[in-house]
Design brief:
37% helix, Rossmann fold
């Protein structure tokens, strides 16, 4: 296919990427034929997948509103931020505090290029291309240091990101190292895919289809996800299915079947 003008030359447009698959399922336009093909196969195996991703975005909005409002956080580090879409962190938090500062981090050059274009006139926000598995590289990046004061509390967002790390990447160790590098009073907002309480067929098919892209999905149980926030103090209601984290309205009857959990927690 012809390379779009917005695609950096180093991007392989024939290899699907999870961030662009996500963009397609949310109705975005910054994706390629290869991404759309994988997305449609995943949707065929798990038809509720687009609504699941939209619910993750709703959790992100609620969490950011809580953090920028009630919790009083004015710095955000969005790891695995993906391709910018409606309701970005700097927009949500900035509506509550115009002085808020945000850094978006993603490994996909397309996601970073578009975030950079959106933020070109916003001195309080920036985008960095980095792999969040290397926490030290992220936190010592000069752009991160210019935008965020890491000796003060910061809210780290890991929304629909950790399930792209297999166990061999030792995600618990990554989060422990992140926790040890942050100032007391920092927060973590996390959502993660799970097959708890659901039939395995569609979930397994979706996992196998995603494995054809740049990332596979690792479903984890509530207990495994809870272990990621060891040393943090969960904000009520704690670790719950995504729609149940401080919902704007009453969750529907499918709440107990939602294939993922979310939590916001504070570092003492």
């Amino acid at each position: 296919m012809q390379r779009p003008h917005w695609a950096p030359p180093e991007v392989d447009i024939d290899r699907p990427a999870s961030s662009r698959i996500y963009d397609y399922m949310l109705g975005g336009s910054h994706n390629f034929e290869a991404d759309r093909a994988v997305a449609e196969q995943a949707i065929a195996a798990m038809p509720q997948l687009p609504s699941v991703l939209r619910e993750n975005r709703r959790f992100l909005r609620r969490a950011v509103r809580y953090l920028a409002g009630e919790a009083g956080i004015d710095q955000f580090l969005d790891l695995g931020s993906g391709i910018p879409t409606v309701g970005n962190v700097h927009e949500i938090a900035g509506a509550l505090n115009p002085a808020v500062r945000v850094v978006y981090v993603d490994i996909d050059p397309i996601a970073v290029a578009h975030a950079g274009a959106i933020l070109v006139d916003d001195p309080g926000a920036a985008a960095v291309q980095a792999d969040f598995r290397d926490i030290d590289a992220v936190l010592t990046d000069p752009i991160v240091g210019d935008v965020l004061a890491l000796d003060r509390p910061v809210a780290v967002l890991l929304v629909a990101a950790l399930h792209f790390l297999p166990d061999e990447d030792r995600p618990a160790d990554i989060l422990t190292h992140l926790r040890d590098r942050l100032a007391p009073g920092s927060y973590l907002a996390l959502s993660h895919a799970s097959a708890d309480g659901r039939p395995p067929i569609g979930q397994r098919d979706a996992q196998e289809i995603y494995a054809r892209s740049d990332n596979q999905i690792t479903m984890r149980t509530a207990a495994e996800i809870a272990a990621f926030i060891e040393g943090w103090t969960p904000v009520p209601p704690g670790l719950v299915r995504c729609p149940a984290w401080r919902p704007d309205d009453t969750p529907d009857d499918q709440l107990t079947e939602f294939p993922g959990y979310s939590v916001v927690a504070r570092l003492p």
